[in-house]
Design brief:
By secondary structure, the protein is α/β, with parallel strands linked by helices. It has 12 helices and 11 strands.
Length: 352
């Protein structure tokens, strides 16, 4: 069975839109796309009057090298959110198919499914917020086409071992596409599920440049999957998804010097995460700090509302996650610079 057999038949048969940039490349005089002949004021050589390459080869190749996959296994989009939406639209028939998630987890999986009118099957994480593989597998029905696993998980920060991911991949063969969201994996101790791609055609991995690579404002992320899955999603990808300035920013961030700088900052975050966890855990009014493999900490408070207000009044905005299952007493605090973290600790240490 091919992984494409899980996808919607009408998407497999779809003749995609053919853009001017896709139909012809090269040439010195471009008159095929109804673009302006003049660059905009202040363009600074960016050529923003020209439509961008739908999948810029230089960026695709750099990401493939970074993630140790083949270029044909990379689909670049506007953050990993776009890849989630594309997957749901390609694999889930409205009113018939479903996705499976383990809450509390990233909310966009369910949002994209509901926009598509696909059902969302929820199997709660274990009491310690660990992946409950047995419960997840037991809940998979023929209607489930996508199983989303967030590793490390958001908003709890819990990591997932490669062994657990591979066990899921083995058990889901021929049943569903396993999608591992690795938005925070650069901050974790383990490796990437991308190392398993060549063994499991029904595995896909989401990566983003928004977190460790500091490009949240550029909105760039990618899907890593078998070339057949990448080609399928390109059928429904907008013609020009990647703005030229965003691509230029990504290439700079992923340059050799950019990678050195990013890895230095990742190291700082990991050290600060441990320091923050220890300091918060020792504070009066803090019930617990959940173990985290991400660039944030989920913190349980005696009075999370009061802690939130205290921080907000001091000009510090954290994420209120009390609406998530099992986190009714928690706030999510991003690990900032050492100075920023000192400020958080000083405000909360003043009394809760």
């Amino acid at each position: 069975m091919s992984v494409l057999d899980l996808a919607r038949a009408e998407i497999r048969a779809l003749v995609p839109y053919s853009s001017a940039r896709m139909e012809a490349t090269g040439g010195a005089l471009l008159l095929n796309a109804n673009e302006s002949a003049w660059a905009p004021f202040g363009d600074a050589g960016m050529d923003c009057h020209r439509y961008p390459d739908p999948q810029p080869a230089a960026l695709v190749e750099r990401l493939a090298t970074l993630y140790a996959v083949r270029p044909a296994q990379v689909l670049v989009g506007r953050g990993s959110d776009e890849a989630i939406d594309l997957l749901v639209r390609a694999f889930c028939r409205a009113g018939e198919d479903a996705i499976l998630v383990q809450p509390p987890t990233f909310g966009m999986y369910a949002v994209c499914a509901r926009v598509q009118n696909a059902r969302v099957i929820e199997v709660p994480l274990a009491a310690d917020f660990a992946l409950d593989a047995d419960a997840l597998l037991a809940a998979v029905t023929p209607a489930v086409k996508l199983v989303f696993v967030c590793a490390p998980n958001n908003p709890t920060g819990a990591g997932i071992s490669l062994e657990a991911v591979e066990r899921l991949a083995q058990r889901l063969a021929g049943r569903a596409l396993l999608v591992v969201d690795e938005a925070y994996v650069e901050f974790a101790d383990g490796g990437s599920a991308a190392s398993l791609l060549d063994r499991y055609e029904h595995l896909a991995v989401l990566r983003t440049l928004s977190k460790a690579w500091a490009l949240a404002g550029a909105r760039l992320g990618c899907l890593l999957a078998q070339p057949e899955v990448v080609a399928l999603l390109r059928r429904i990808l907008p013609p020009y998804p990647l703005p030229r300035p965003c691509v230029a920013a990504a290439l700079e961030a992923l340059s050799p010097a950019g990678q050195v700088a990013a890895r230095e900052r990742i190291g700082v975050v990991r050290v600060e995460r441990a320091r923050m966890a220890a300091a918060l855990g020792a504070m009066a009014g803090v019930r617990a700090v959940l173990p985290s493999q991400a660039n944030f900490l989920a913190v349980r408070f005696e009075d999370a509302g009061a802690a939130y207000r205290r921080l907000f009044e001091a000009g510090i905005v954290v994420r209120d996650v009390r609406r998530y299952p099992g986190l009714a007493d928690a706030l999510r605090i991003t690990v900032g610079t050492p100075r920023e973290n000192d400020r958080v600790l000083a405000v909360l240490g003043g009394g809760l």
